[in-house]
Amino acid sequence: MDRRWLPIAVVAVVLAASFVPGGGGGGTVGPVGVDKLLHVLGYAALAAASLFAIRSRTLRTMLAVLVVVTVFGGAVELLQGFVPGRTVSGLDLVADAVGAVAGVAAWRLFASPAWVDDARS
């Protein structure tokens, strides 16, 4: 599979999970709700997949991905207000941003040089 399709696949999964009417994770894992954990994991995956597709470890690219993924999370949160049984949540947006930071950090720490095109990293 062409690596450029990976973030598109992650976006599809995030959107499908975000717009299920009446959805939302229940229960807690330690001090956090399952839904917040799912937000962090989903947006971390989206950020890391985006960087994998872009094949860059430059600070500029990583910051751009962080901003775009967080703004995407904000847009999804706003649109959830139109889905029956779903609500807009500022805490969900915070979880999305935390996930984006985690995904970018994981990419920076663990990405193999073989996965990266630029030599400026």
From TrEMBL:
Chain segments annotated as transmembrane: 36-54, 61-81, 93-111
One Pfam family from the record: VanZ
InterPro entries associated with the record: VanZ-like
Residue intervals of the VanZ-like domain: 34-110
Keywords: Membrane, Transmembrane, Transmembrane helix
Membrane found in the keyword field: yes
Name listed for the protein in its UniProt record: VanZ family protein
Lineage: Archaea, Methanobacteriati, Methanobacteriota, Stenosarchaea group, Halobacteria
